[in-house]
Amino acid sequence: MINIEKNKIYNESCLKTMERMDDGAVDLVITSPPYNMNLRIRNGEYCSRQIVDEFSTKYQDFSDNLPIEKYNSFHTKALRELLRVSNLVFYNIQIVTGSKRSVFKMIGDFSEYLKDIIIWDKGVSQPAMQELVLNRQSELLLVFEKDNAISRQFKTANFDRGTLNDIWHIPRSKEKENSHGAVFPPKLVAKILTNFSDESSLVYDPFMGTGTTALACKMLKRNYIGSEINKTYIDISDDRLGNSGQMWIF
Fold first, then answer.
1. For residue 90, how far is the Cα from the chain centroid?
2. Which residues contact 70 (CB under 8 A, 6 or more apart)?
3. Which pLDDT tens digit goes with each residue over 208-236?
4. Within a domain: residue 1?
């Protein structure tokens, strides 16, 4: 690993961070990328510049409405790099208008690396914003593995046979860190960490947000590296990490 410090969040694009990483540099990736919530459809066509603030739940300092081709291109590059620097990737996504075609395409394009799909049941759903649209109660954890995805058996895991299901019932986080409206649930991160990593493992989150992956790693004695383009979120992460003794307990 070149010019990368452990237990640090870098204020830059994840692609820049991963440029400095060796192949297989980290043990595990856990992330929840932007959903492209503000890309909408009008008259059967994408409206790449329509801003709908109330739909934006992950970021509020940029429009989160990339044209679908650009959104897919970026996340394809990111996922290729993630599979270079780590053998195991947990990629949390929600099927929304602005990401749907890209997510379905990525599942096909990366099918030989797609190990499994875990359904995150959030317990309750928010009412759909439009008529004739299904309420969304679930999100997906796409689990990618570089070396052995053809098998459903994980090379390294900490759960006993018959003890871990593919539907995880975890309520949405009640935290709302300042301008970040969708904090990654700590219990979801902790479940991945405890079942798919060991103490002192190195975990990377390329879309760190307000630092929940880092905080879970600190609480569970894992090392982390993060990337985050929003400096305000990094400041929030540093504050949460500094006050971790007063935070939630798993």
1. 7
2. none
3. 999 999 999 999 999 999 999 999 999 99
4. no
